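for the writeup, i need someone to sanity check this before i put it in the appendix. the sequnce is what the collaborator sent (i think, or maybe the updated version? ugh). structure was predicted straight from it, no edits. if anything looks off just tell me and ill rerun, i have time this weekend
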Amino acid sequence: HGRIVEEKGVIGDAKLATVIKEERAKNPNVLVVDAGDAFQGLPISNSSKGEERAKILNEIGYDAMAVGNHEFDFGLDEAKKYKEILKFPLLSSNTYLNDARVFQASTIIDKDKTVEGDEFVVIGVTTPETATKTHPKNIQGVTFKDPITEVNKVIDEIESRAQAEGKVYNNYVILAHLGVDTTTPEAWRGSTLAQALSNNEKLKGKRVTVIDGHSHTVESTTYGANVTYNQTGSYLHNIGKVTFKSQELLGNPQQISAASLANTKPDETIAALVSKIKENYDKENAVVIVPNSPVELSGTRENVRVRETNLGNVVADSLYQYGQTGFANKTDLAVTNGGGLRETIAKDAPITKGNIIAVLPFGNTISQIKVSGQNIMDMFTKSLGST
């Protein structure tokens, strides 16, 4: 989620680069991957529609990345543009436009050409919740097919081709952006995919690693004899590391936390890139909108997603106020979704343009629709029932 800069609890890209460089020095066969939602999230990354972040990931030297739902937040054309900017594959096996995949479904990574059977087959898959978790105009004509069906279809294709060519692939990595939220339909969860893969006869005796995102959880679980499932939380609080031993199918996962890297020296090349991005961003967004905020406006995830907050009220009140003159009919009621509020406004500090964009980073538009009382009742029942 665009955590380019190191902050309290956030590793930042320069230290991330150092960790990866050190791991590669110990073992050149290290695979570096990402489970999606890399480009959007903070104003500093959003200001370039994620393109500056993409350049950083290129410099670090990633091997592959999954397509997350927020990769579409700047529009379909921008999501496609990432494919052109990135020097590594952007993967999604289940994202279709006009019956054709929008992104590459899989890639085969061979770190040591002198050894046969050590290749990694990497497959990407994107949550079908993307249909409702980015703006509809960003995904017009795009469909997200069933994750398990599509991943198994790609496995079938790869295994058939390998058999025809006399090859054997022993390592599969599934880059998933599915998550394990209870509000996500069970068939679309990363844990359900992991369970299904453990029962896939074509993967018996092969090492299968699922790297998941979307639900912002920290989790390491095993399924059956050969599937390791991992999620590293969110916002670059952790780097996930999975270590394989030659005679074992299950990987050994661990979390490298921001706290554990307190004395780690940032990579100089990436630090210089980050510094330049931050300098340009700070200049553009230092404009003061309100000289002083007399109260803290709470935008923390654990508040805005489950209860009324003063920040939510400010935003909803602003939408209501706009609705008195902004449409042909006066607005009777205004609502905002808690998940769209992404940052806290500090007490006794100026409110800048950058602060406001941090609170509302998605570039949404204000819409007015005609609804019935029952529609409103159903909306709030659904909302309160999801807490």
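DSSP finds twelve helices and 16 strands in the chain. The first helix runs from residue 12 to 26.
thx in advance!!
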